[in-house]
C-alpha cells in the first residue's frame, strides 16, 4: 500500500468512520423497515404470506451466506474498494425495489441490497478495532452500538408511520438519497486503514459455509410457519449442520482459513460469543412477542405498537456511547451483570402481563429491558475482541456477526414454537372448560355469543403462551447472567500489543 492510502490523519479518520456509520445504519435499518409493509405488498402484487415472507427471509439468508466470507474480503481488498462495492450494490437494490413492477423484481432487489449490507457491519467493526487502541475501544464501539442496536429498533416505528401515510415504496425512496450521498462521499473521502494480504478464497469453504449457515438459517426461520415436522425444515437443518461441521473441520486443517475457528482458544472471546448467543435469543423474545400481544390480543394499531418500542430505541441510542465510556473505565463484567439483572427482571415482569396491563406500563417495561440490553451487548463483544491478535480482527468480527444472525433465527424459531405449543394446550383446556359449563347450563348460546366465547378463549390462550415464553426468556437471560460473572478484563499479550502499536504507528491514526 502506498503512503497516500495508509496515512490517515485525525479529521479524515473520523470523517471515514462517519461515512461507514451512515452506510451501516441505513443497511441495518433496511433489514427491519419492510416487516410492517408486508401486508401492503401482498395486496399490491397478489402474493400469499409464504411468498412475501421471502423478502425478509431471503435478506437474512444472503447475510448469513456472505458475512462468514467477510473476513476474506476485508483481508483481501482495500477498505475503500470494499465499501464502495458494497454500497453500490445496496444502492442499486434500493433503486430497483423502489420501482419494482413485479414481486419477482422486488425480491431480486432485496437480495442485491442484502449482498451489499452483509459486508458493511463487519467492515465497520474491523475499521473501529484498527483505528483505536485497546484502552479507547469501548467508547468507539459504544458509538458502533448505536448503529447495531438503534437501527433495527426504530425500523418498525418509522415504517409504521410511513405505511400509514404513504405507499410502501416510500420506505425505499427514503433510503435511496441517503445511500447515494453516502456513496458519493465515500468515493472522495474514504481512505484505506486496514492492511491487506494476498490470500486466495477457498471455493470449497465458501460452498460449505453457504450451505451450512444458509441451511440452518432457512430451516430455523421456517420452523415457526411450517412446523418442526416439515421435511423442508428438519431436512435443511440436518443438511446445514452436516455442511457446517465439514466446514469447521476443513478450516481447522487449513493454514489460511476463510474463517478462523482457532480464535476460540482465547477464553474471553469464547465466553463473549457464548453470552452474545444467549442474549440474542432472549432479545428476540420481546421483538417477536410484543407486536403479537399489543396488536392481536389488545387490538392496538401498528403505529401505536411501533411507538411503544420507540422510547426503548431512544434509550439504547443514548446509552450506547455512555456504556462504551463506562466499559473503558470499569470493564465489561460490572456492566454485563447490571444489564443482565435488569433484563432478567423485566422479562419476568413481562411474563405477568394481562389483558388490562396499562400501555404506559408496557412502555416502561420495554424501555427498561432495552436499557439492560444496551449495557451488555457491545461491552461483552468488545472485551472478547480485545483479546484477539490484530491479525484475527476480521475473523472475530465475521464470527460475531454470523453468530448473531444464526442465534437470532434459532431463538426466534424456538420461542415461536414454545408460544404456539403453550397456546394450543391452554386453548384446548379452556375449550373443554367452556363445553363443560355449557353442558351444565340448559340454555345454548347464540352463534354470535359462541363466536365471542371462541375469540375470548383464543386471546386468553395466546396471552398464556406469551407469558410462558417470556418466562422462558427470563430463564435464558439468567444463563447469560451466570456466565457474565466469569468475565475478566482483557490485557492483550505483549506481542499482540506490539503488533497493534506498530500498525497504529504505521497508519498514523487518532492522536491520544
TrEMBL record:
Membrane topology: Multi-pass membrane protein
Major subcellular site: membrane
Signal peptide: none
Key words of the record: Cell membrane, Membrane, Transmembrane, Transmembrane helix, Transport
Gene3D superfamilies reported for this sequence: MFS general substrate transporter like domains (1.20.1250.20), Multidrug resistance protein D (1.20.1720.10)
InterPro entries (alphabetical): EmrB-like, MFS, MFS_dom, MFS_trans_sf
Subcellular location: Cell membrane
GO MF annotations, alphabetized: transmembrane transporter activity
Major facilitator superfamily (MFS) profile domain location: 16-492
Ranges annotated as spanning the membrane: 12-34, 54-74, 86-106, 112-132, 144-163, 169-188, 200-220, 232-249, 269-294, 306-323, 330-350, 362-381, 468-487
A GO CC term attached to the entry: plasma membrane
NCBIfam families listed in its UniProt record: efflux_EmrB
Family, per entry: Belongs to the major facilitator superfamily. EmrB family.
Name of protein: MFS transporter
Species the sequence originates in: Sporosarcina globispora (Bacillus globisporus)
Amino acid at each position: 500500500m502506498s503512503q497516500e492510502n495508509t496515512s490517515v490523519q485525525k479529521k479524515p479518520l473520523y470523517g471515514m468512520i462517519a461515512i461507514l456509520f451512515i452506510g451501516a445504519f441505513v443497511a441495518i435499518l433496511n433489514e427491519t423497515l419492510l416487516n410492517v409493509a408486508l401486508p401492503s405488498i401482498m395486496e399490491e402484487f397478489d402474493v400469499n404470506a409464504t411468498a412475501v415472507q421471502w423478502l425478509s427471509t431471503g435478506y437474512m439468508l444472503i447475510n448469513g451466506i456472505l458475512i462468514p466470507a467477510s473476513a476474506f474480503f476485508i483481508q483481501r481488498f482495500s477498505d475503500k474498494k470494499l465499501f464502495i462495492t458494497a454500497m453500490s450494490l445496496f444502492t442499486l437494490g434500493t433503486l430497483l425495489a423502489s420501482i419494482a413492477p413485479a414481486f419477482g423484481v422486488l425480491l431480486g432487489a432485496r437480495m442485491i441490497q442484502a449482498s451489499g449490507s452483509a459486508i458493511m457491519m463487519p467492515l465497520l467493526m474491523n475499521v473501529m478495532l484498527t483505528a483505536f487502541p485497546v484502552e479507547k475501544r469501548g467508547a468507539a464501539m459504544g458509538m458502533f452500538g448505536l448503529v447495531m442496536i438503534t437501527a433495527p429498533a426504530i425500523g418498525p416505528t418509522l415504517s409504521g408511520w410511513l405505511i400509514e401515510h404513504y405507499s410502501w415504496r416510500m420506505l425505499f425512496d427514503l433510503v435511496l438519497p441517503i445511500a447515494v450521498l453516502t456513496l458519493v462521499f465515500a468515493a472522495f473521502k474514504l481512505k484505506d486503514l486496514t492492511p491487506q494480504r494476498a490470500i486466495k478464497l477457498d471455493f470449497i469453504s465458501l460452498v460449505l459455509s453457504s450451505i451450512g449457515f444458509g441451511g440452518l438459517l432457512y430451516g430455523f426461520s421456517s420452523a415457526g410457519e411450517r412446523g418442526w415436522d416439515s421435511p423442508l425444515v428438519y431436512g435443511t437443518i440436518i443438511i446445514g449442520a452436516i455442511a457446517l461441521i465439514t466446514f469447521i473441520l476443513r478450516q481447522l486443517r487449513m493454514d489460511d482459513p476463510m474463517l478462523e475457528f482457532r480464535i476460540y482458544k482465547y477464553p474471553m472471546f469464547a465466553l463473549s460469543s457464548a453470552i452474545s448467543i444467549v442474549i440474542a435469543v432472549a432479545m428476540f423474545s420481546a421483538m417477536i412477542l410484543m407486536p403479537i400481544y399489543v396488536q392481536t390480543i389488545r387490538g392496538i394499531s401498528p403505529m401505536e405498537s411501533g411507538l411503544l418500542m420507540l422510547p426503548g430505541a431512544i434509550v439504547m441510542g443514548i446509552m450506547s456511547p455512555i456504556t462504551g465510556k463506562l466499559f473503558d473505565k470499569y470493564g465489561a463484567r460490572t456492566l454485563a451483570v447490571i444489564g443482565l439483572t435488569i433484563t432478567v427482571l423485566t422479562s419476568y415482569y413481562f411474563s405477568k402481563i394481562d389483558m388490562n396491563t396499562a400501555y404506559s406500563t408496557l412502555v416502561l417495561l420495554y424501555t427498561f429491558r432495552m436499557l439492560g440490553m444496551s449495557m451488555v451487548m457491545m461491552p461483552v463483544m468488545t472485551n472478547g475482541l480485545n483479546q484477539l491478535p490484530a491479525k484475527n480482527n476480521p475473523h472475530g468480527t465475521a464470527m460475531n456477526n454470523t453468530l448473531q444472525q444464526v442465534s437470532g433465527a434459532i431463538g426466534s424459531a424456538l420461542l415461536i414454537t414454545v408460544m404456539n405449543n403453550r397456546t394450543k394446550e391452554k386453548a384446548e383446556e379452556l375449550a373443554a372448560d367452556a363445553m363443560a359449563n355449557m353442558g351444565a347450563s340448559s340454555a345454548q348460546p347464540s352463534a354470535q355469543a359462541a363466536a365471542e366465547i371462541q375469540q375470548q378463549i383464543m386471546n386468553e390462550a395466546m396471552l398464556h403462551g406469551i407469558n410462558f415464553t417470556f418466562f422462558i426468556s427470563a430463564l435464558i437471560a439468567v444463563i447469560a447472567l451466570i456466565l457474565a460473572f466469569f468475565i475478566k478484563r482483557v490485557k492483550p499479550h505483549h506481542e499482540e500489543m506490539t503488533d497493534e502499536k506498530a500498525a497504529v504507528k504505521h497508519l498514523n491514526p487518532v492522536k491520544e
